[in-house]
Amino acid sequence: MIQSSIPQSVAIWLTGLPASGKSAIAAALKPKLDALGLRVEVLESDALRQVLTPAPTYSRDERDLFYRALAFFGSRLVAQGVTVIFDATANRRAYRDFARRLISNFIEVAVECPLEVCMERDKKGTYKKGLARESATVPGLQDAYEAPLTPELRIDSTATAPEAAADKILTLLRERQAI
Predict the structure, then answer these.
(1) Distance from C-alpha of 151 to C-alpha of 100, rounded to nearest angstrom
(2) Dihedral sign (CA 2, 39, 74, 177)
(3) Range of 162's domain?
(4) What is the dihedral of CA 72, 75, 79, 82, to 10 degrees?
(5) Could you give the C-alpha distances from 119 to 19, 56, 70, 124, in angstroms and in order?
C-alpha cells in the first residue's frame, strides 16, 4: 500500500458571538499545532471579508455567499493536508453544517460567553455600532446567533483562558486521533 505524503489534517471551527474569545483561542492554538509539525492556516473572517466583501453589508445573501466561500476555501486547504482553524462567528448553524458536509475531519468548538461580557470585551465596536443603529445585523443583537446543538467541544471563555482552551482542543484532537 502506498502511503500518502499528505499528513492528517483537520478543520476546527471556532464559533461564538462576536468578542466571545474566538480570535484569542485561535492565536493560542495555532503555535501549538505548528509545534506538532502540522501545516496550519487560520481563516479569520474579518481578514477574508476584506478581500471578498470589502464594503460588507452583512445582509443575509452576502453572509450566505461569504460563509459558503469560507467553507470551500477551508475544504480545499484540508484536502491538501493543511489543518484549518476557522475563526468566524458563522451565526447560522447552516453555515457550519455546510462546512461539515464539505470536510470529513471537522471539529466544531462552541466558544460560549454571555452577550453582556462580549459587549464589555468588544474592542472593534461591533456592539456599539449595533446599539447606535449604525449596523442592523449584529449577531446576538439584531440578528440571531444559532449556537451549536452538538458541538464536539464547548468552551466557556469566561472561565477558561485562551491557552487552556487551546489545550482542551488539542486533547480532543488527540482523543479523536485527528492529529
Answers:
(1) 11
(2) positive
(3) 11-174
(4) 120
(5) 7, 21, 26, 10
Q: Is the residue at 47 inside a domain? A: yes
One-letter amino acid of 162: P
Cβ pair 179, 82 in contact under 8 A: no
Tell me the Ramachandran region of residue 133: left when phi exceeds 0, alpha when psi lies from -120 to 50, beta otherwise. Answer: left
Count of structural domains, the chain: 1
Q: Which residue has the cell 443583537?
A: 141
| Alpha-carbon separation of residue 99 from 70, 73, 152 (angstroms) | 8, 10, 14
Does a structural domain hold residue 3? no
**C-alpha separations of 70 from 45, 113, 125 in Å:** 8, 24, 23
- Locate 110 and state its grid cell: 462552541
| Residue whose C-alpha cell reads 489545550 in the numeric block | 167
pLDDT of the chain, 179 residues: tens digit per residue: 444 444 589 999 999 999 999 999 999 999 999 999 999 999 999 899 999 888 888 888 999 999 999 999 999 999 999 999 999 999 999 999 999 999 999 999 999 999 999 999 999 999 999 999 988 899 999 999 999 999 999 999 999 999 999 999 999 999 988 77
